[in-house]
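Bug #77: duplicate submission created two jobs. Keeping one. Sequence:
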Amino acid sequence: QVQLVESGGGLVQPGGSLRLSCAASGRILSRNDMGWSRQAPGKERELVARITGGGGTNYADSVKGRFTISRDNTKNTVYLQMDSLKPEDTAVYYCSAYQFGIAYWGKGTLVTVSS
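Kept job's structure:
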């Protein structure tokens, strides 16, 4: 069993930055892929960024060049650095971990981009 707790969400103006953190506990392995997804009101959840155990990354086209996913395996923590934020980035952001074919999810943290 894996537990994930997100933090770092909040209100930010367009063009601003936020860094989200996801603390993992339980039977998490440093080689597990982890990711960030988001769900805006009235929309389906979409994968924003994913990082492998070896540090390989991929991003949704909508955030490439603006968001950066990283991990600190010594702290069992994954980060999402979000720069040049836009109003359309407003959503609940969820952390995920993938282990033995199972996806684990946190409860999410709200990011609101508004002036």
